[in-house]
Amino acid sequence: EVELVQSGAEVKKPGESLRISCKGSGYRFTSYWISWVRQMPGRGLEWMGRIDPSDSYINYSPSFQGHVTISADKSISTAYLQWNSLEASDTATYYCARLVEPTRGGRFDPWGQGTLVTVSS
Amino acid sequence: QSALTQPASVSGSPGQSITISCTGTSSDVGAYDYVSWYQQHPDKAPKLMIYDVSNRPLGVSNRFSGSKSGNTASLTISGLQAEDEAVYYCTSYSTTNSLYVFGTGTTVTVL
Fold first, then answer.
1. From the list B33, B52, B104, which residue is nearest A44 (CB)?
2. Residue A101 has what pLDDT?
3. Does B34 sit within 8 Å of A106, measured CB to CB?
4. Would you state the pLDDT for residue A106?
5. In the predicted model, is pLDDT for residue B1 greater than 80?
6. Mean pLDDT of the region B99-107
7. Separation CA B88–CA B76 (nearest Å)
């Protein structure tokens, strides 16, 4: 079974750093891009960026470029989303999703269970 | 890159059919047949329901179907069931730097 398992919920203070993870299993991790998607409380989905785990090539959404860092460690089939300095507005649930057929547009399937990040002083 | 436009809510009685629209531009929905739809139940991760405008993944009920005309894509749920109550999001590949743009989301209520 193809599965993405994300790290647990986090509570942080403004200015702190954070890295959350997404571990893939049940498929060849390097054969599929991983995307990250943000969902702020009570709001819709926003695409943040994608990474090709085979070579760590990354595309960021302009809305998130410079504020987050996406990375991957193919040796342990894990992708990461990182912040150097969190803000209260980063409070959201973050999903990773496998990107299928990116050369033909792509679709997100499956999704991780989500990681809730709460940033509060 | 603005979000694709969806109605905030759609409702129907059990057994009825409903259609959710997803309107974009010639840079996204109108540019490619790469529209997909996701179902999200409360406090759950989204689930792929339709991809490439009208294709269903294995395991998704044939009560779900998709189509597209110009800059507007549509998701139709036929034979509405209580379990279909959820928020539905469309998404499209885009020619802009954003690459992928999501819709605003539609809450489906089964009366």
1. B104
2. 86
3. yes
4. 87
5. no
6. 96
7. 11
Per-position DSSP letters for A43-60, written without gaps between them: --EEEEEEEETTTTEEEE
B39-72: pLDDT as tens digits: 999 999 999 999 999 999 999 999 999 999 999 9
User: Which residues of A fall within a CB distance of 8 Å from B89?
Assistant: 44-45
Name residues whose C-beta falls within 8 Å of residue B84's C-beta, 6 or more positions apart in sequence: B39, B63, B77, B108, B110
Give the nearest chain A residue to B93 (CA atoms): A105
Pair A46, A63: CB distance under 8 Å: yes
* Main-chain dihedrals φ then ψ at residue A102, nearest 5 degrees: -65, -25
CA distance, residue B89 to nearest chain A CA (Å)? 8
Ranges of chain A whose pLDDT falls below 50 = none
A97 interaction partners in chain B (CB closer than 8 Å): 46
Q: Is B37 touching A (CB cutoff 8 A)? A: no
Unique residue bearing structure tokens 């749920």: B77
